[in-house]
Write a structure and sequence with these properties.
Elements (H helix, E strand, L loop, with lengths): L3 E2 L6 H11 L7 H11 L7 E2 L5 E5 L8 E8 L2 E9 L1 H4 L5 H9 L3 E3 L2 E3 L4 H7 L8 E10 L5 E11 L1 E6 L12 H15 L9 E5 L5 E5 L4 H23 L4 E4 L5 H13 L10 H7 L5 H13 L4 E4 L25 H14 L6 H37 L6 E10 L2 E6 L5 E4 L9 E10 L4 E6 L1
Parallel strand pairs: 1-11, 2-9, 3-10
Antiparallel strand pairs: 4-5, 5-8, 6-7, 8-9, 11-12, 13-14, 15-16, 15-18, 16-17, 18-19
Helix pairs in contact: 1-12, 2-5, 6-7, 8-10, 11-12
Length: 460
């Protein structure tokens, strides 16, 4: 996920320091690059020819690591989503140099000044990416979407596809998209509402220079096509999770919901933003009440993202139901194998299951060891995300020491009071005793340290 854009490069120095601090690799080892060059030249075999199917991709316009392409067709009252996923397993052999490096990295890491790829660009942004410049090997999942939005896996196959168009969120028109795209998203939304799922997609933030020479940190509104596109991936991952569960295998994405204390903190956050959260409404119900175009919705979604107890990966365990509270269902990650290591193995397992074959032993073994690898990579990603936001906030408020802000105490613990500024999506700490959650107060920005990415507020 890209969390922040920096088109003016005002964070450049701080980002360079952050990359060094967290020891992000600057490049791939020579043996990995050499192996990737050889793998990129492989001729696909055992792939069905599906180049006649009108696949398209839909992503940020600048993206080149395209994991997914889709086509939609009616089937009576149902819709069939043909969801093509980059066939990373065709290019990457278990245990070889590319694979070993991917296990060291775990995920692609995103920063405003560029990403650190999971796989070398010759694969992730060229040969394996579902770009529209020629045929590509893919694993195509066919997902049946019923009128009530229920998703089920109808089949999976290795296939050669040809994307008809690389569509961008910023410029796509309704006429560019396959017929049934909006209807599929509507059906998936019905199922989401029926399950009581939360809306947790967060908007990207952007650093902008203001007329007075300072900087502002603003949310970029999510586009309708972006939200609708997310439902395709969600439907496929839900259907894949059910198929894995039915065959008592797999790796699942799980997450507990916010506990009572986190919910209380989120209610105070909503109050700080002037959002009315009805007393009897659950978090999921309240999120569905928020207007998509309201920038406060984006700020609140960011708070929800931070309040969660943390998503993790868990292998199948007999007698246990893997549950993702935000999705309100068993859930798997399979649709981004160019960016997440675990997805490659979920794709392999599901492909085997759909064709009546045993799950490859390499995938079964990986399901047991991937949780630690992915947790380490995601911990690094979370550290980067927090540091980037802290840096942007420090740059935004640098030179404004002495400025006063309205705030609300959202929580109190052994480290003091956690406060939420009412006019900015900034959460910080206040060293003052005697405060209780829900208290409104006026704070003064006492110190900004851009190098340390820190803010210090005081109150009278």
């Amino acid at each position: 996920m890209k969390i922040l854009a920096d088109p003016g490069h005002v964070l450049e120095e701080g980002l360079a320091a952050l990359r060094a601090e967290v020891q992000l690799p600057a490049a791939f080892p020579p043996d990995v690059l050499a192996a990737a060059d050889l793998a990129a030249g492989r001729t696909p075999a055992a792939h069905a020819d599906r180049t006649d199917r009108p696949f398209v991709t839909l992503d940020p316009a600048a993206s080149t690591d395209l994991d997914q392409a889709f086509a939609i067709e009616p089937a009576g009252s149902d819709l069939l989503l043909h969801y093509a996923i980059a066939d990373v397993g065709w290019f990457v052999d278990d245990g070889e140099a590319i694979d070993q490096e991917a296990w060291r990295r775990g995920t692609t890491q995103y920063l405003p000044d560029g990403k650190v790829n999971l796989y070398p660009p010759v694969l992730s942004e060229q040969a394996a990416s579902l770009l529209p410049d020629g045929p590509r090997p893919a694993v195509v999942f066919t997902v049946r979407i019923a009128p009530d939005g229920m998703a089920s896996l109808d089949g999976a196959e290795r296939a050669i596809i040809r994307s008809r168009a690389k569509l961008g969120y910023e410029t796509v028109r309704e006429a560019d998209l396959p017929a049934g795209f909006a209807e599929l998203a509507r059906r998936a939304g019905l199922a989401e509402d029926r399950r009581g799922a939360s809306r947790i997609d967060t908007a990207e933030q952007e650093v902008e220079r203001t007329a007075d020479g300072h900087f502002d940190l603003r949310f970029r509104p999510r586009r309708i096509a972006e939200d609708r596109n997310a439902t395709l991936s969600l439907a496929a991952n839900l259907a894949i999770a059910q198929a894995l569960l039915a065959h008592q295998t797999g790796l699942f994405r799980t997450m507990a919901g916010p506990d009572d204390r986190a919910i209380a903190r989120l209610r105070n956050t909503a109050h700080a933003y002037g959002l009315i959260w009805p007393h009897g409404a659950t978090l999921a119900q309240f999120q569905r009440m928020l207007a998509p175009a309201d920038p406060r919705r984006a700020a609140f979604a960011q708070a929800v993202h931070r309040a969660g107890s943390g998503a993790r990966y868990e292998p199948f365990e007999p007698g246990a139901l893997p549950w993702h509270a935000a999705v309100a269902a068993p859930y798997a990650h399979a649709t981004a194998p160019l960016r997440r290591l675990a997805d490659r193995y979920v794709v392999q397992a599901t492909l085997a299951i759909a064709n009546g074959q045993p799950v490859p032993e390499a995938a079964r073994a990986a399901f047991l060891t991937l949780p630690k690898v992915m947790a380490r990579a995601e911990s690094l990603g979370g550290r980067i995300e927090r540091a980037v936001i802290d840096l942007a906030e420090a740059v935004m408020l640098h030179g404004q020491e002495g400025r006063r802000f309205a705030a609300i105490v959202t929580d109190v613990d052994e480290r003091g009071a956690r406060i939420q500024l009412r006019d900015l999506p900034i959460v910080t700490r206040l060293a003052r005793d005697g405060l209780v959650p829900g208290t409104a107060l006026d704070v003064r920005l006492a110190e900004v340290d851009v190098a340390k990415r820190s803010l210090c507020f005081e109150s009278d």
